[in-house]
Structure formats: structure tokens, C-alpha cells
Write a structure and sequence with these properties.
2 domains, alpha/beta, 9 helices, Thrombin, subunit H, nine-stranded mixed β-sheet, 17 strands, QueA-like
């Protein structure tokens, strides 16, 4: 397949620059995988679209203030976007400067922080802190919220709260798992009252999530690695749901990539989709033709044209039908990308009672 197969026309004014006034006040486009029918809803209606016994799996990663600003000794300005914290003193970052950085070059960041170039990994530069404290402490002190490049404004104090899900507890991401941004206490309470269960896994989203697909043929594209962790308890909950015929609904593409990676790593994954607990790194690239093992439904935001996230969604819902759904979303003026509206992709029929099989 070619990346041009995943193009759609998106008016720039539909790219959300701010979150909705209240968390959860988004629209929801529901797509029935059985019929292909679309239903315009609000996110508050999500509980009514789920079945008793469904298991929602969320990503509990926490976004760190991963954008840093500084200067070279020459006076040239530099912007760093952390890709991954390696340890207390070292990190990988994307760099924006007028000229490429040299080996061993020092950068002076805000508040007296000094970092030095020590190596490279693919498109990322490895730095070591020479003065200013541990990496995570530095980020909390002088870092800026790493809003995506399509949000064309400086970060604000409010972004520290709104560009973070209510499930966020484990620091390490440099981009939010945006499908989770829609959830708030009222919706969660209504889900639980309906008999929908929740559990959490962790995938620390890296800056590579914004890297475009440069290869014309999808088979030539390589994903950046991202760290994930699945607890023994979460794996048991997910495996129990599958054994009992209850659906596993992924809240976001990050959860899909985590569960599908864990299913592949499991000794029984190829046949049963069982989830292995543990931690690891994934560079899984899911595009049409992929056979899903672990996920029955997906809640997700609307994604960039020709992006790996759109390709994953097309793999799950069918390329032609998903692109038609995106055209519908454009016509109906849905809001796109991180602070935008949501989509629910699953069978929308009532289904069997929990525990009776599919």
C-alpha cells in the first residue's frame, strides 16, 4: 500500500487549537463495524453505546513538560523536544536550531541548566545534563507542555491540566494519549453503573508519534520505539474478558499498539490473543492487512492525513469506510486532532449478555 491511499482533504479551521470549554464536552462519531453506518452523537452518550461487561482499557501515562528552550554559546536559539528520558542525567531529544549541533557541544537552557551533546540515535540527539539537576526535575521546573506542531500557539498554564488525561499517573510521555482526554468523572461513573469495567496499561508516547511517513510504500516505513508496561492485574483482567466473551475496547491507538504488541509477544498470542504481563518496547506498525488479536473496539480522535495513526484506524475499520467516515466528519464540522472530537469504532448492536460468548 502507498501512503497516498490515506489522503483526505481537511480544512485548516477544523484543527482544534483549544480544548472544549469542559472536559468531555466533545462530539462522538459512532461507526458500526457490522453495517458501516455512522451515527452523530456526543461523548456523553458513550455509556449507552457500550455493553454490560465491556472492558475499557486506558493508557495511564502522564505527559511531562518536555519542550525546552535555550541558546548555544554563539547566541543561536535552540528548541529541544524530549523523545525519551534515558536515566537521571541523559535524554534523547529532537532539536530545532539554525545549524546542526556538534558532538560535545554545550547548550545553556533556562534557570542555569547546561546540557551537552553526547551522541545520536537515528533522528534524535542524546544529551547529558552537566548542571541543573535530574532530568525529570528539570522538566518540571523549566519545561513547557509539548503541544503538537499543528496547535499553532504557545502553551498556556491551562494546558498543564487539559493536555493530560484523568487517568495519568506514570510520568514519561511527551504527547498525550488523546482519546483519554474526553473522559471525566461523570462519564466514568455512568460507565461503571452500566457494568462497563476499566483497567489501565502504560505506553509512554514519544516525539516520534509526530514523525511523518516519508516512504511512498508503507512497507518501507519504520516506527520509533516506545516503552510500554502491562501489570499482572491488567493482563488478568484483559485475558478474563476475552475468555468470557466480553469485549476489549481500546481507549486510543496507544492502547491498541500496546495490547497487540503484548499479544504478539505472548506464547499463545498468535492463536488466542492472550496478553502477557511485563514491560518492553514496541515499534509495531499497524496498517490495512493486519489481523487484530486483542482488541474488539476502539475509541480514538481524528488523525492527520497519511499518518500512521490513520493507517491503524483504517486497518481496524476498513480503509474505504474509514475515509468515508472522515469525509462525513469534515462535512459535519467535527473538530480534528489532539483537542478535537472523538470516534467510536465497534459493533453497535446490543450483543449477547456478558459471559455468554460472542
Amino acid at each position: 500500500m502507498r501512503k497516498s491511499d490515506f489522503h483526505f482533504d481537511l480544512p485548516v479551521e477544523l484543527i482544534a487549537q483549544e480544548p472544549p470549554p469542559q472536559r468531555g464536552a466533545s462530539r462522538l462519531l459512532a461507526f458500526d463495524r457490522d453495517t458501516g453506518l455512522l451515527h452523530d452523537r456526543t461523548f456523553a452518550e458513550l455509556p449507552g453505546l457500550l455493553r454490560t461487561g465491556d472492558l475499557l482499557v486506558v493508557n495511564d501515562t502522564r505527559v511531562v513538560p518536555a519542550r525546552l528552550y535555550g541558546m548555544k554559546d554563539s547566541g543561536g536559539r535552540v528548541e529541544l523536544l524530549i523523545e525519551r528520558v534515558l536515566d537521571e542525567r541523559r535524554f534523547l531529544a529532537q532539536c530545532r536550531s539554525s545549524k546542526p549541533l556538534r558532538p560535545r557541544q554545550a547548550l545553556n537552557l533556562e534557570a542555569g541548566v547546561v546540557v551537552r551533546v553526547v551522541g545520536r540515535e537515528d533522528v534524535f540527539v542524546e544529551f547529558e545534563v552537566e548542571a541543573g539537576g535530574a532530568v525529570l526535575e528539570i522538566l518540571e521546573r523549566i519545561g513547557h507542555v509539548p503541544l503538537p506542531p499543528y496547535i499553532r500557539r504557545a502553551d498556556q498554564l491551562s494546558d498543564r491540566e487539559r493536555y493530560q488525561t484523568v487517568f495519568a499517573s506514570k510520568p514519561g510521555a511527551v504527547a498525550a494519549p488523546t482519546a483519554g482526554l474526553h473522559f471525566e468523572s461523570t462519564v466514568i461513573s455512568r460507565l461503571e453503573a452500566r457494568g462497563v469495567r476499566l483497567c489501565a496499561v502504560t505506553l509512554h508516547v514519544g516525539a516520534g508519534t509526530f514523525e511523518p511517513v516519508r516512504a511512498a510504500e508503507l512497507g518501507a516505513h519504520r516506527m520509533h520505539r516506545e516503552r510500554y508496561e502491562i501489570s499482572t492485574q491488567a493482563a488478568a483482567q484483559i485475558n478474563a474478558a476475552r475468555c468470557e466473551g466480553r469485549r476489549v475496547i481500546a481507549v486510543g491507538t496507544t492502547v491498541v499498539r500496546t495490547l497487540e504488541s503484548a499479544a504478539q509477544a505472548s506464547a499463545q498470542g498468535a492463536s488466542r490473543g492472550s496478553i502477557a504481563p511485563g514491560s518492553g518496547e514496541t515499534d509495531i506498525f499497524i496498517y490495512p492487512g493486519y489481523r487484530f488479536r486483542a482488541v474488539d473496539g476502539l475509541i480514538t480522535n481524528f488523525h492527520l492525513p497519511q499518518s500512521t495513526l490513520l493507517m491503524l484506524v483504517c486497518a481496524f475499520g476498513g480503509t474505504e469506510r474509514m475515509l468515508a467516515a472522515y469525509r462525513h466528519a469534515v462535512e459535519q464540522r467535527y473538530r480534528f486532532f489532539s483537542y478535537g472530537d472523538a470516534m467510536f469504532i465497534a459493533s453497535l448492536s446490543p450483543g449477547p449478555a456478558a459471559g455468554t460468548g460472542k
